[in-house]
Design goal:
InterPro entries: NADH_UbQ_OxRdtase_ESSS_su. With 152 residues, this protein is mainly α. The protein contains 3 helices and 2 strands. Helix content is 35%, strand content 3%. The chain has a two-stranded antiparallel sheet with strand order 1-2.
């Protein structure tokens, strides 16, 4: 869909959000204590730009002690433990219990029952020597029709 929009509105593909490439817009107002807000992050001096012109952002959560920050807690041990618990319950338990639940759902539309009943009737008719399929669903000799002269 985005490719269609670019074809319809070619000017949309040339829009740049900032005049400086690699600029990041951070709030300079102090945060009221929201956890993980970008206001706590500080931009490093301009001389620490990388080869692509990106500025390095240093946050207090990305310290040498907490190198692998997962976003669950500020403390490294609690962060790793919370990440492991979240992935265990989010992936393992959801897939195992969800898959078991879907597997043991009742037969929707009674398809399995209908197939078993058809197989039982075929075996029964073959044992009796009757044709499996007949052009008449009901036995014509057992059908009682009204006399032809009565029309009311």
């Amino acid at each position: 869909m985005a490719a269609r929009l670019v074809r319809i509105f070619p000017a949309c593909s040339r829009v740049q959000l900032g005049s400086m490439p690699g600029a990041r817009f951070l709030s300079q107002t102090p945060s009221p204590g929201a956890a993980g807000s970008p206001a706590g992050c500080v931009l490093s001096p301009a001389d620490r730009n990388d080869s692509h012109g990106h500025v390095e952002v240093s946050c207090p959560f990305f310290s040498p002690q907490n190198r692998d920050f997962h976003g669950f807690h500020k403390e490294p041990q609690v962060d790793v433990w919370n990440m492991k618990v979240a992935f265990f319950f989010g992936i393992s338990v959801a897939l195992v219990i969800g898959g078991t639940f879907v597997h043991y759902l009742p037969d929707h539309g009674m398809r399995q029952w209908a197939r078993q009943e058809a197989e039982r009737l075929i075996k029964e008719r073959e044992a009796k020597g009757i044709t499996v399929l007949d052009c008449n669903y009901y036995d014509p000799s057992k059908i009682i029709l009204p006399p032809a002269g009565d029309e009311e």
